[in-house]
Amino acid sequence: MTTMTTLPTSPSRVVVTGAAAGIGHATAAAFARTGAVVFAVDRDADGLADLAGRHRTVVPVPGDVCAPDLPDRLAGLVAENGGGLDALAHVAGCYRRGTLAASDPATLEELFALHVVAPTLLTQALLPALERAGGAVVAVSSTFGHRASRTAAGYAASKAAVESLTRTWAVELAPRGIRVNAVAPGPTETGILAASGMTADASGRSARPNGSGCAGPARRRRRDRGLDRRARPARVDDRTGGFVDGGLTHG
User: Fold this and answer.
1) Residue 244 confidence (pLDDT) above 50
2) Class of domain 13-199+234-250
């Protein structure tokens, strides 16, 4: 059973999903280095144990974010250990390639369950804690969330839904003192990218406005020039603060 009896008192308490690797790991570690208490959620219990071994304020919460009992279990844990929540970072995700012709119900359900349904139910369960602290919700979208993709229709649609939820929640929750924002990193060197089978060259092309993966007008090249390379997770975690409500920061 998870306990926090040995953790120091901290003015900041955060929840990070997908915390065992990649952007989630970098985000959780960055918060922990500030002294924040981090409720780190992931299916990879060993990865969470390693993270907690490096940062004494990390509280491992092994579990699948899509599991029906996870939202209430996590809300109870937060309530038992301080009650307020300063930040909720929805980082857990997956990438699936697939054109319209190749799309199938199981893959689409997986993408929307992880990127849309799970964050919705988790945010809902943690609303009292976020309101108590005047907290912030940060979702991780993708450049594919607002640009056409020739090779990942379902993934792109699920990330577009993330951006729509971000804008909607920002308006809905502002009167309750809760800020909601999203970051949209380009290809980032994580296990998700490696598992997709994309090479370094292919991932770079997919991030470009007129590359093989995305379509966009040439006049957007200057604004999007920073996307023409792969990033590392630590660069993305630097973008977790200081956003305009409902805003979208491009990686």
Assistant:
1) no
2) alpha beta
